[in-house]
Amino acid sequence: MALSWRSWLANEGSKHLFLFFWLSLNVWLFGKTFLLYNQGLQYYYLHQMLGLGLCVSRASASVLNFNCCLVLLPVCRVLLAFLRGSQKVASKKTRRLLDKSKAFHVTCGVTICIFSVLHVAAHLVNALNFSENYSEEFVTLNAANYRGEDPRKLLFATVPGLTGVIMVLVLFLMCTASTYAIRVSNYDIFWYTHNLFFVFYMLLMLHVSGGVLKYQTNLEEHPPGCFNPNKTLRQNLTVPKAFEELFPDYTTEPFPEDLPVPEPFVQNSFMRVCSAEPKFQSHFPETWFWISGPLCLYCVERLYRYIRSNKPVTITSVISHPSNVLEVRMMKDDFEARPGQYVILHCPRVSALESHPFTLTMCPTDTKATFGVHLKVVGDWTERFRDLLLLHSNQDTEILPIFQQRRYPKLYVDGPFGSPFEESLNYEVSLCVAGGIGVTPFASILNTLLDGWKCYKLRRLYFIWVCRDIESFRWFADLLCMLHNKLWQENRPDYINIQLYLSQTDGIQKIIGEKYQALNSRLLIGRPRWKLLFDDIAKCNRRKTIGVFCCGPNQISKILHKLSNSSNSYGTRFEYNKESFS
After folding, report:
1. Is the pLDDT of residue 239 over 70?
2. Domains of the chain
C-alpha cells in the first residue's frame, strides 16, 4: 500500500494537494485584506460609511489582482518551452509541473470568476451605502454627490462603474465560451472570445484609476473619532443676534453633552485631541503593480513570436492519407525542435486571425531539415486548408513536386512549444498509448528512434495504438515497419513492443500483405485489456519507474490514470502523463 500511496501522490494526489493549497492561499489573502480594511485606522471613516461592503470588495479585489497576475504566465508558451529544456530545469518532477500549465490557467480563471461575483455584489452594496450614508461632514470621502442619489448613476455614469459593468460582460463571454461543450462544438467561438482578455486588462487598468475608495492620510494630526477643540468652541460660541442676522452661517447649535467617545481612542480616561481636519486621498492603483509585469512579459513574448514566425515556410510536399488525414512537410531556416513538441500553423488565406496547434510528426535533424505535421480534416479551418493545398482533393495520395510550390498558399509556423511527450525519451521504460489521430506525438518519437536510439535514456518502449478502422494504421505503417526492421538488424527486437488494436473489424483484410507483414502479427481485434497489460509490464520491469503517456479519448485517459495510481506486487511505479484532444 506504500507504493500505491506514492503513486497516488505523484499522479492524482498532487492535483488534490495543489487545489487545497491554492484554495488556502486565496482564502488567506482574502482574510488578511478583510481584516486590514475592517480594523485599519486609515479606513475608519470609510468603514463607518460602507460597512462590510468595503471589506469584502477590497478583499476580493486583492484575490483578483493575484490571479489576474498569474493567469497569464501559463500561456507564455516560449517561457514554458525555455524552462522545459533539460539544461534549464534539471528535475523531472519540476518539468512535470510545467505540464500542468493548462490546469493552472483554468484554476486561475475559475478563481477570477468566483471572486468577481463576490466583488460585484460587494460594490452593489457600496453604491447603495454611498447614496444612503452620504456624509456632509466629509464631502471628499463621498462617491455620491448628495444623499439619496440614484445608485445606478454610480454604476453607469462613472469610470469605475462603467468599466466594471463592461468587464463583467467580457468575463461572462470568456467563461461561457470556455466550457467543454462550446470548445468541442465550435472552437472558433472559444478562440475569438478568449482573445477579449486584452480588452479585459485594458478596462481593468482604467477601472482602478477612478479613485473611488479613499483612506485618511493624517492619522497623527487627526486620529479617527478624536476631539477637535477649535471646531467645538466655534460650534458652541454664543453669537450676538445682530451678528446672527448679518452672518447666519455662524449660527450654531449647542454642543451635545452626550457625545459618544469611541473606545479605541480613549487613553488614560481622556479623549485624544486633534489639531487638524481629516484629509483623504485615493489609493495608488495597486492593480498596476500586479498585472503590469505579466502583461508586459506576455506582450513581449507575442512580439517575439510574431517576429520569429513572420517568414513563411517552404512546403516541400503534401500527402493525403486515408481517413481524412493530411500530411504537410515543410522546411524553414534555423528551425529546431525536439520530439514530442508542437507548432502553431497560420494560413492567412484560410483565416486572417485564426491559427491552430499541431503536433510535429517529423523533427529536423542534423542530416535533414524537413519537418512535418499530420492533421485530421475536421471542421471548417482544416477543410479549407486541405482544399488550398491539394489540387484534386478526391485523390487518395498526391505529392506535389518542388517546381509546383507556387501553388501552395503562404503558411506561417509559430513554435516549437513543449509538451509532456518530450519526457518519453527520459525514462528507461515508457508506455505510449495512442487513440486514432492521437498517435501524432509518438510519430516524432518513433522517427527520432529511427535515426538513432543509443543516445537516449530509453531502453524499452511499449507502443499501443487503438483505431476504429484498418486504414488509419496506414498513416505510420511504413514508419513502424522500418523501425521494427532496424531494431531486428541491430539485434534489439525487444527495444520496442508494438500492439495495434482494431475496435471495428470491417475491411481487416486490406492491411494483410508482404509490405506490412511485421505489423500483421501485432494486429489484435477488440480493445486492450488494460489491467492485464499493466500487470504484464510491471512484471517484466520490476522495481522500475515507467512513464505512461496517453494521447487519445478521455475514456482511455481515465482508465490509464486510475491504473497508474494502483499498486502492484512487483515494486513497479507508473508515472502518468496526458495530452488531450481538447
Report:
1. no
2. 32-217+281-299 (no CATH), 311-390+409-417 (2.40.30.10), 421-579 (3.40.50.80)
